[in-house]
C-alpha cells in the first residue's frame, strides 16, 4: 500500500516506524514530518488542514490509505472531506469524522455524551460569558480543589486545577472574559476533582468492533515529582502495574463498551483511535477526557508493544473490518523519556544542533518530535519537545535503564529531561 500519514510529532514518528517496518507498506509519505520520519519515509511539505492539497496529493500518488495523527485536522473535518469527494469517497481514512472528533473538540459535548451513555465521569457543569454569575455561584458550592477546563482545543494546556476559591474564581473570569485560552475558553466546564492515579487507555475501533491496545501512564508536568507547569507530556510507561486484569475488565465493561455502543447508537461514524484518559479511584475507573487520536508521548511506549502487523491494524480500522484482526502484543515493558528544549513549556530557542543521535542498539528507539535538518544537513531542534527515547526491557527498571543510557548519549545546548520518569511505578504498592 501507498500510505499518507499526517503530522510532525513524536507520535507520527512512532506511527511511521511501525508502518515502514510492515511488509504491507510500499511507499510511506509523511506531511509534513520531521527529521526522524525523513530517514524512513518521504516527507512532503503539505499543510495538514489544506484539504484540497491533500486530496490532490492522494490522487497524484495513488495513495491507498490516509492515517491522521493529530486532532486538529480531525476536528476540522478531514475525514468528512475525503468521504464527500467522488474520487476519494472509498479511501480508508484512519481518524473519526468531524462529529466524532467533537469528543475531543468540545469538553462539554464529551461530558454530555458520557452522561447519556452512563460512562463513569466526574460531576460537572458548563458555563459561558452569559452565565458567568451562575458559574461563580457554582464554584462556591464545590469542594476544593476545583477543576476548570476550556471547552475547546488548547494544545493540552486548557485544564486548571485550582487549590483555592479565589484562584478558581479569578481563573474562571480570565478564561471567559479575557479569553485566557482564546476561543477554546468561550465555554468553561467546572468539574469535581477526582483523586487517584491516572492512566491512558487506547482503543482502536471501526465504529462497531474494538481492540484495546496497551495502556500507558504519562507524565504531564515539567518538573520532577510532578511539579511545575503542564506540558504536552514528558514521558510514558507501558504496561501499567496498577492496571491489573480485574481493573482492565472494569474499564472494558464500564467505559469501553458503553463508549463504542454510544457511538453506534448515536450514529457517530468513528473509524480511528480513542484515547481514554482515566482516573483509577479506589479501583474504579472514571473518565477524565476522551481524545480522538493516539496520545503523545504514550504512543512511543505503546506502539513498540504491538507485535501483529500494524498496517493490517490501520487498514482494518479504516475499512471497517476490525472484527477480523487479531491483535498480538509483546511481553516487554516500554518506557519513554522526552527530551525538551531549555525554557519549554515557555519560550525556547530553535535551531540548536543535536549531537549523539547515531545508531542505537536494539534496547532503545529514538523518536523525533520537534526536529528538522538545517542547510548543512545537520539535525537541529525545531520545537519544545524535541525527542522521545523509548527503552525496552523485561521490567520497568530495565526499560528505564535502557532509555536513560540512550538519553545520556544525546545532547544539545540547554537540553532538559525529567530524571524521575517511572519512579512512582517502581514504588507502587511499596
From TrEMBL:
SUPFAM superfamilies with a match to the protein in the record: Glutathione synthetase ATP-binding domain-like (SSF56059), PreATP-grasp domain (SSF52440), Rudiment single hybrid motif (SSF51246)
Alphabetized Pfam families for the sequence: GARS_A, GARS_C, GARS_N
Gene3D superfamilies recorded: 3.40.50.20, ATP-grasp fold, A domain, ATP-grasp fold, B domain, Phosphoribosylglycinamide synthetase, C-terminal domain
GO molecular function per UniProt: phosphoribosylamine-glycine ligase activity
Key words, A-Z: ATP-binding, Ligase, Nucleotide-binding, Purine biosynthesis
PROSITE patterns for this protein: ATP_GRASP (PS50975)
E.C. numbers: 6.3.4.13
Pathway where it operates: Purine metabolism; IMP biosynthesis via de novo pathway; N(1)-(5-phospho-D-ribosyl)glycinamide from 5-phospho-alpha-D-ribose 1-diphosphate: step 2/2
Domain ATP-grasp residue range list: 111-319
Keyword ATP-binding assigned: yes
Record-linked InterPro entries: ATP-grasp, ATP_grasp_subdomain_1, PreATP-grasp_dom_sf, PRibGlycinamid_synth_ATP-grasp, PRibGlycinamide_synth, PRibGlycinamide_synth_C-dom, PRibGlycinamide_synth_C_sf, PRibGlycinamide_synth_N
Signal peptide residue numbers: none
Catalytic activity: 5-phospho-beta-D-ribosylamine + glycine + ATP = N(1)-(5-phospho-beta-D-ribosyl)glycinamide + ADP + phosphate + H(+)
Highest taxon in the source lineage: Bacteria
NCBIfam families with a match to the protein in the record: purD
Family: Belongs to the GARS family.
Name the UniProt record assigns to this protein: Phosphoribosylamine--glycine ligase
Organism: Echinicola arenosa
Gene this protein is translated from: purD
